[in-house]
Write a structure and sequence with these properties.
This is CCD62 protein. Keywords: Coiled coil. The chain has about 250 residues and is mainly alpha-helical. The chain has one domain (about 1-230). It contains four helices and no strands. It has helices at about 1-70, 80-110, 115-190, 195-245. It is rod-shaped.
């Protein structure tokens, strides 16, 4: 009954490990989708930043063109210095306004347009998702520690089973030696054959019980090894997921 109970416990533990493995795989898939969405948003932001840089470069080129035209036509437009000055001031003010707009667009990642405001909102949502991912990482860490404890307990149980197998093997050898000795005594003591026969039968039964127990113990050790392999595989997968989340 003890062996059957242990088998049931092992089966329940195996089922629970499979459920946890499926849950972990589902969560990994969800996190990968979130990472892909975040990467897409990041590419959009990089595109807007590049556009801002292009506008800034174009503004600088226009400033240089205006300065060059002003220098070339300064002598020819000596009579129109006042108008040119007013125009240059207006252009300078316009250039300053454009420069401030570009700077504000680069610093705040798009408050000048409604789409950029939407991107900021999405970034806030992504920050919340990152916080949620951090909570998941904490939960994974806790589960990882629990799995480590279970793995340690399984290893201790394996050591105990190995010790028990060794003890049973030694006991079996002792019984075999004792049985051989009884056979020798049986040849020398014919008068006590009935009594010795009963003892031999009893020893054979005990030997059979020990053999059966040894077979069951070996089978249990094999199952424990399988559970250890399964736990190590899950532990490696958890380490991979944690490493991926830390990189994010």
């Amino acid at each position: 009954s003890t062996i059957q109970q242990q088998r049931q416990e092992i089966q329940l533990l195996t089922a629970e490990l499979k459920d946890r493995d499926k849950e972990l795989s589902d969560m990994v898939a969800v996190h990968q989708k979130q990472i892909l969405a975040w990467e897409c948003d990041r590419q959009k932001i990089l595109t807007l930043a590049e556009r801002c840089n292009l506008l800034n470069n174009e503004l600088k080129k226009r400033n240089e063109i205006i300065k060059s035209l002003t220098q070339q036509k300064f002598k020819e437009m000596s009579q129109k210095v006042t108008d040119a000055t007013v125009r240059c001031q207006a252009l300078e003010e316009k250039n300053q306004s454009l420069h401030c707009s570009v700077f504000e667009l680069s610093a705040k990642t798009g408050q000048l347009q409604a789409r950029e405001q939407e991107l900021l909102t999405m970034l806030k949502l992504k920050d919340e998702a990152i916080l949620e991912t951090t909570d998941h990482i904490t939960e994974f860490t806790s589960k990882f520690r629990k799995l480590g404890s279970a793995l340690h307990a399984a290893e201790v149980e394996k050591l105990n089973l190995n010790k028990k197998i060794q003890d049973l093997t030694l006991r079996l050898k002792e019984l075999i030696l004792e049985r051989n000795k009884l056979k020798d005594d049986l040849c020398e003591k014919v008068k006590e054959s009935n009594k010795q026969e009963e003892e031999i039968i009893q020893l054979r039964q005990e030997n059979g019980y020990l053999r059966d127990e040894l077979v069951l113990t070996v089978e249990k050790a094999k199952r424990v090894d399988q559970l250890l392999q399964f736990a190590k595989s899950k532990q490696a997968r958890t380490n991979t997921e944690l490493e991926s989340l830390r990189q994010v």
